[in-house]
Amino acid sequence: MSMRQQARTQQTHSVEVRQVYERVLAGASVRSRHVEVGAGNRVHLLEKGAGPPVVLLPGGAGSAGFFLPLLNELQGLRTLAPDRPGQGLSDPIDLPQHRYRETAVAWLDRLLDTLELDATALLGHSGGGMWALWYALAHPDRVKRLVLIGPPAVPKTRCPLPIRLAATPGVGELLSRLAPPSPKSVLRFAHHAAREKATLAGYPDLVDLLVAGSRDPIADRVARAEIRVFVSPFALLSPSGFRRRSRVRPDELRQVAVPTLVIWGEYEPLGSVSVAQAVTELIPNARLVVLPTGHGPWLGQPGQTAATVADFVR
Predict the structure, then answer these.
(1) How far does the chain reach from its first CA to its final CA, in angstroms?
(2) Do residues 151 and 264 make contact, with C-beta atoms less than 8 angstroms apart?
(3) How far apart are CA 241 and CA 165, in angstroms?
(4) What Å distances lie between residue 222 and 39, 247, 255, 283, CA to CA?
(5) What's the angle, vertex CA 109, arms to CA 107 and CA 112, rounded to 5?
(6) Secondary structure percentages of the chain, helix, strand, coil, to 5
(7) 91, 77, 90, 160: which is closest to 121 by C-alpha?
(8) Residue 270 forms beta bridges with which residues?
(9) d(Cα 137, Cα 133) in Å, to the nearest integer?
(10) Contact predicate 216/19, CB 8 Å
(11) Alpha helical stretches, state H, the chain
(12) Residues 6+ apart with CB under 8 A from 174
């Protein structure tokens, strides 16, 4: 076995993740494939349709499969949704805390090169929204339109208590042992951290995918590392929990040079609609759409979310 094969074997996702992902995709209208980004690093992505391209970046604890209710509704676009590094079926990469932002931007840049997308629309949810925003700031020439759904580390957002607990050294590990990943614990987390318990419960396959991801050592390690980039180790002593240096500053938002759509849930746990309004006002060419949802608007409002995105991107 070559060194590359050995390295790939050591970072293979669990059998449970692969089996659940395969079952979730069985009835979906998307194509699943891997692309190689850089030397030996594979990225798994879901792809559908034809038209103007849009790349969807999922949040920190979810694979691209979590976007399926949205992907199934999007029409008239070429949609590409990658599993971010270490999530879903994508290989992990080294994401050092002191260069996390630069590494994320470089990974996305290589992915767009591999997909031969000189310019594209970008949609990011939660932590994926931060990746999309960082990339738009670094490479505005490659981003035609930007859609941000519940980006966490922007001015005046707060960090939900479950996220702060998960990021606190020792506490997160203890909670995982006391309440190991299960459909019940995932739905409880969705209630407190995303205000989407009732809507998520309507997608049992997605619940199973989240459970499998939480049990997968690679995905769990990556998700915890990302949380700790954004949240202070002393989060319980902080009113917000987000590291000051991880936030996108107001002066950076004023430099966003691409048309931007901010989608915000009326019950978003990151903050009230006034928080989203303040962020939208800082971005020169931005507009805000508020939906009667929590942190994952396509779970309860898949058709309305898809129509809002498609109208903006096309």
Answers:
(1) 47
(2) no
(3) 10
(4) 20, 20, 30, 30
(5) 110
(6) 50, 15, 35
(7) 77
(8) none
(9) 6
(10) no
(11) 3-10, 15-25, 68-71, 100-114, 127-138, 161-167, 171-178, 183-189, 197-200, 204-215, 217-230, 250-253, 273-282, 297-300, 302-313
(12) none
Q: Say what the pTM is.
A: 0.90
Q: How far apart are CA 33 and CA 89, in angstroms?
A: 10
Strands 143-149 vs 286-291: parallel, antiparallel or unpaired: unpaired
Q: What is the DSSP letter of 91?
A: P
The torsion angles phi and psi of 148, rounded to 5 degrees, stand at -115, 120
In three-state form (DSSP H/G/I as H, E/B as E, the rest C), the secondary structure along 180-194 is CCCHHHHHHHHHHHH
Structure token pair of residue 205: 């396959």
Cα angle: 164, vertex 187, 290; to 5 degrees:
75
pLDDT tens, the chain, 314 aa long? 343 443 444 468 999 999 999 999 998 889 999 999 977 799 999 999 999 999 999 997 679 999 999 999 999 999 999 999 999 999 999 888 888 899 999 999 999 999 999 999 999 999 999 999 999 999 999 999 999 999 988 998 988 877 777 666 665 565 666 668 899 999 998 998 899 999 999 999 999 999 999 899 898 888 777 766 666 554 444 556 676 667 899 999 999 999 999 999 999 999 999 999 999 999 999 999 999 999 999 999 999 999 999 999 99
| CA–CA distances in Å: residue 36 to residues 1, 20, 112, 213 | 20, 23, 11, 22
Chain Cα centroid distance, residue 296: 10
In this structure, which topology does domain 13-313 adopt according to CATH? Answer: Rossmann fold (3.40.50)
Q: What is the DSSP letter of 234?
A: T
**What CA–CA distances, in Å, run from 63 to 26, 88, 158, 225?**
16, 5, 23, 16
